[in-house]
Amino acid sequence: MAKQFIDENFLLANETAKHLFHTYAKTLPIIDYHNHLSAQEINEDIHFSSITEAWLGHDHYKWRAMRTNGVEEQFITGDASERDKFEKWCASMPYLLGNPLLHWTHLELQRYFDIDLVINEKNASAIWEECNKKLATPAYSARNLLRRMNVESLCTTDDPLSDLEHHKALAEEGFEVKVLPTFRADDLFYIENNNKFLNWVKRLGDKTQSDIQSIHSLFKAIEQRFDYFHSNGCRLSDIGIKVVPYAQSSVEQADTVFRKVLAGENINQNEIDIFKTQIFHFLGVKNKQFGWTMQLHIGVLQDPNQRRFEEIGPATGMSAMDDQPIAKNLARLLSDLDYERNLTKTIIYCLNPRDNAVVASLIGGFQDSDSVPGKIQFGSAWWFNDQKDGMLNQIKMLGNMGMLGRFIGMLTDSRSLLSMPRHEYFRRILCNLIGQWVEEGEVPDDQVMLKEMVEGICYYNAKRYFNL
């Protein structure tokens, strides 16, 4: 007899798993330490106009799926009505068996809206009407959506030039969910994209009232932004590294490269790597000085479809995993910082699961006792990997090569306020795996140890690690 779809024991295939989840994991608060949520939406406590805006407005996972189902772009990012877009999404759902979107979206429907219907074309009208009726009530404002999911704190992703006005307003008001900024420094690394890079440097100069004519004046301006972010609650930075750079070099060599770019001259690949290496080193040192956690997201092949990039722009669901080598250069970047005792708490996420063993083995060479246990973390399964098999692969690789009990757990990496049930999804997968190990005699049935392990990975490890 088939089990009910997404019942109370969803993904929990053994009795120990059910006990671990329902007793220890289920009710723990959420620390969502990396996402792309809008602090403005939270500060303004917005109400979504419809379930389409809430579900499809910024979700390139769903856009990608709809394109695969042959849906025309006008129903995805175009000017079709919200009702028509929603119906196209519902009609696509039955073809997503095996895709985490099937699980995530039904969990969201249940946890936020108390709707148990299966999402398909036949149920689209009933789901549309019930969700929109609830979204129009005060209980479904942005802040109440976070409260509903027991979110304790979250860290958004922010341009270093941001004024952080909405983070400041939330803090001053005393909103009980901590909404903290993250210093996302990608634009500093786009030196090969001359116009984009120079425009950002100019804006940095305007923001800091600096005349940026050398790498030293660039560094001073960035230091101002570190100070500003820190004073407004920032405790994490982030760098999206498409290809890991490294060139043994000096700040003076990087200054020469920077001045060439300012003068409009062309630079070669070695010069690009020199500049990026020194920028990475500078940011690493600053992170250590401020006591921040540095996140590294590695391996995106961004917008490979040139025609669609020109038609609908970047970050619309076209990106893929890259397959560039990462081990040697990443080790050199970390080693240079570590040699000077400037390696801060660091989380490394790899997009290509081919690199799971590389990262899991590499972090073991840079652990030490100068901050917290698990100082260097193998980040949670990311983007294309945050599905059942991807999470299991990441968890098992970390367990095999590192120390699973010190893992800081899940994050959403999402732009949607309705994405928090992904933490539940992760917790169920984790509890099922540990429960399987217990029932097969691979780990002791020691409830004190298991409680500490599950509660640590789901909540307490992150709370201690980030000192939130």
Task: Write a short abstract of this structure.
49% of the residues lie in helices and 8% in strands.
* Structural class by SSE content: alpha/beta
Largest sheet: 5 strands, parallel
> What is the annotated CATH architecture of one domain?
Orthogonal Bundle
Give the CATH class of one domain: Mainly Alpha
Fraction of residues in H or I helices: 40-55%
Q: For the record, what is the CATH homologous superfamily label of one domain?
A: uronate isomerase, domain 2, chain A
The geometry reads as: globular
Strand content: 5-15%
**Could you state the order of secondary-structure elements as H and E?**
HEHHHHHHHEHEEHHEHHEEHEHEHEHHH
Radius of gyration: 23 Å
Structure summary, number of beta strands:
10
Average pLDDT figure = 97
The CATH topology of one domain is what? uronate isomerase, domain 2, chain A
Number of helices: 19
Q: Gap between N and C termini, in Å?
A: 46 Å
Poorly predicted regions: none
Give the neighbour order of strands across the main sheet.
Answer: 4-5-6-9-10
Structure description:
- This protein has 468 residues and is α/β, with parallel strands linked by helices.
- The protein has a domain of 93 residues: uronate isomerase, domain 2, chain A.
- The strands form three sheets. It has a five-stranded parallel sheet, covered by helices on one side.
- α16 links the parallel β9 and β10.
- α1 crosses α18, α1 crosses α19 and α10 packs across α11.
- The radius of gyration is 23 Å and the shape is globular.
- The N and C termini lie far apart (46 Å).
- The model has no long low-confidence stretch (mean pLDDT 97).
